[in-house]
Amino acid sequence: MMGRSYQEGSTLIVCLVFLLILTLIGLNSIQTSTLQEQMAGAARDFNSAFQAAELGLRGGESYLELASLGGFDGSGGRYMVCANPDSTATQCVIPSWKTRSSTGWVVLEEVNGISAQPQYIIEKFRGYEDMDAPLDADVAKRKIEVYRITARGFGVSDHSMVVLQSTFRRG
Q1: Cross-strand bridge partners of residue 150
Q2: How distant, in Å, are the alpha carbons of 15, 61, 74, 91, 98 from that of 122?
Q3: If you compute the radius of gyration of the chain from its CA atoms, what whole number of angstroms results?
Q4: How far is the C-alpha of 149 from the C-alpha of 155, rounded, in Å?
Q5: What is the Cα–Cα distance from 10 to 2, expressed in whole angstroms?
Q6: Cα end-to-end distance, the chain, whole Å
């Protein structure tokens, strides 16, 4: 009779240990799926920001394909690349891409489902003459203009921003 009472209690302990192991496995599965969901959300957010920045680059390139560009005087998202990097001239001071609230960007209004619309600025480098042009006496050398487009796109959340740059040659 004594041996029998010891055996009845051990079954309860074994079942409780198995229940504890199953609970730990379940908690681990929940943590893993939560982490994977966060990673998928971050990837989606980054992709949205990247696509928006690409759209900003295309907006700047479309502007540069126009026949007449207007002045690069530091307004309307158009700036000059100045020889003196410390210049405080209006046309040389570009807005900060790091500061989300900086002004002076051209804002595109085409995208739904993101925290802010894509933006771009264009910087004009000093032009140069085409060195590969023929040296005909009666033909002026062709002038080549080079621009840098900086675009930034924002994702679904307020915490994501992608900045892209491209160089555009005209002429």
Answers
A1: 121, 165
A2: 70, 9, 10, 11, 16
A3: 30
A4: 20
A5: 14
A6: 104
Min mean pLDDT across 95-99, 121-125, 149-153 is at: 95-99
Pairing type for strands 143-154 and 161-170 reads antiparallel
Nearest to 118 by CA among 58, 45, 37: 58
| Residue 114 contacts residue 52 (beta carbons within 8 Å) | yes
In tens, the pLDDT along 65-91 reads 998 888 888 888 999 988 776 677 788
pLDDT score of 111:
84
Residue 79 backbone dihedrals phi, psi, to 5 degrees: -135, 165
CB 97 within 8 A of CB 152: yes
For the chain, give the secondary structure using H, E and C.
CHHHHHHHHHHHHHHHHHHHHHHHHHHHHHHHHHHHHHHHHHHHHHHHHHHHHHHHHHHHHHHHCCCCCCCCCCCCCEEECCCCCCCCCHHHCCCCCCCCCCCCCEECCCCCCCCCCCEEEEEECCCEECCCCCCCCCCCCCEEEEEEEEEEEECCCCCCEEEEEEEEEEC
